[in-house]
Amino acid sequence: MKLVYEAFDKTGQKVSDVIEATDIAEATEDLRKQDLFVADITPVRGGSGPRRKSGGGGGAAGTGAPATQIAGEGKARVGGSKTRRLKTLAMFTRQLFVLVSSGTPLTQALLALERQIKDSGWRKAIGDVRARLEEGSALSEAMGSHPECFDSIYRHMIAAGETSGELPGMLDRLAELTHKRLHIRSAIQGAMIYPCLLSVVALSVLVLLMVFVIPRFGELFDSLDAEQPPTTAILLAASDIAVNYWWALIGGLVAVIVGLRTYFRSPGGKRAFDTLVLRMPKIGGIVRSFSTARIVRMMGVLLESRVPVLEALTLTRDTTSNVHYTELMDRAEKAVSQGQEISSVFADTDLITPAVYEATRSGEKSGQVGPLLLNLAEFLDEENEGTLKALTSIIEPVILIVMGLLVGFVALSMFMPLFDVTSMTGGG
């Protein structure tokens, strides 16, 4: 069949001509071998000349413009929460692995995924990556233009796959890593939904009592001239403040939240917050476990992907949010640069469990640090999920008990004066 195409050579000059091939895929591949980057290709119909086709070809989709022009246009913002972006990345990576491993050319695989993605920001980012590939850029280099979609670890692993010629295998590993990150994040969020919902209900009940119920009791006590116990007087005073000065309470609460948020974003405040979290009973142990598991998994994946040790430590450090773990990875990087072993740093800290230290030390002796850390990460993830479920199973009844005690305290404080009035009336 005859196909009419529009393409661009390495100098950016536009080329329009007709080519014979069995299908569009074969024609595109033949043109690529001639160092031509296809912008549009369609079958010849009735001797018509080159036509523009929406969403076509392997170049800048549907525009006929050079890829540099597309790449230079404004980028759409990738919206949604971190979980949503991670979910999109996991789906994108898995589908890209399936397409590439089945022999689909990379640009065509990206075009297929671009059509499937619903988020406009992701769709435009993938289109830009594809356009840069048509210009001759490497995949990791093209992804570097969109750090909001592809983080540094993702890009470095892609670069390692391209260098070693094992891109499909690296995509498979990345898909597994991204899916694991998504699973852990979803597990944490799912475990916290019910406790948070109970807390909101408890707070809502308390607010309703303070604003609507207790003031009615106050009017009743005033009309009966009943003597008020100390707890009743305190609740009535608090209710009066909530009703008459609600604007001041809301303003103060907003000011406190903004102030704390600003403080905790400062270096000193972040250090204080991270230290407090690690020292909290139960919570500190869980934070240590999850942080350790994340570090172990990242290091294992990067080292298994043949990323240099120093670079792997730097990338792992960039994924840690707690300042103490960031400093730990800094010390590890410094030790390795001086010829020491990573395990020598892990041995002198309570941030890393002895199991991680022993696995790292054994791996350094056998030259199998990556596989050992990956196996340990699987064990740590399973252990952390069990710990998280056990903690939430304890938190839920505690919240229910606290809510019941609060409601019971308010009820007793309100009804005790009524009991006194009733007994006095009966005695009279």
Describe what you observe in this structure:
The chain is mainly alpha-helical and 428 residues long. It has 3 domains: 2-56, Roll (Ubiquitin-like (UB roll)); 82-180, Receptor-associated Protein, CATH 1.20.81; 187-428, Up-down Bundle (Receptor-associated Protein). 73% of the residues lie in helices and 5% in strands. The protein has 17 helices and 3 strands. It has helices at 24-33, 67-72, 82-101, 106-116, 120-135, 139-143, 152-164, 167-224, 230-244, 246-265, 267-279, 283-304, 309-319, 323-337, 342-346, 354-366, 369-427; strands at 2-8, 14-20, 37-43. The radius of gyration is 31 Å and the shape is elongated. It starts with a strand and ends with a helix. 29% of the residues are buried.
CATH architectural arrangement of the largest domain: Up-down Bundle
Question: Helicity level, as a percent range?
Answer: over 70%
Number of strands: 3
Query: So, the CATH homologous superfamily of the largest domain?
Result: Type II secretion system (T2SS), domain F
Please tally the helical runs, counting DSSP H or I stretches of 4 or more residues.
Answer: 17
- Stretches where pLDDT is under 50 for at least 5 consecutive residues are 46-76
Strand ordering within the main sheet = 2-1-3
Number of domains: 3
Radius of gyration: 31 Å
Largest sheet: 3 strands, antiparallel
Sketch the topology as an H/E string, one letter per element. EEHEHHHHHHHHHHHHHHHH
CATH topology term of the largest domain: Receptor-associated Protein
In percent, how much strand structure appears in the residues?
A: under 5%
Helical/strand content category:
mainly alpha
The best one-word shape is: elongated
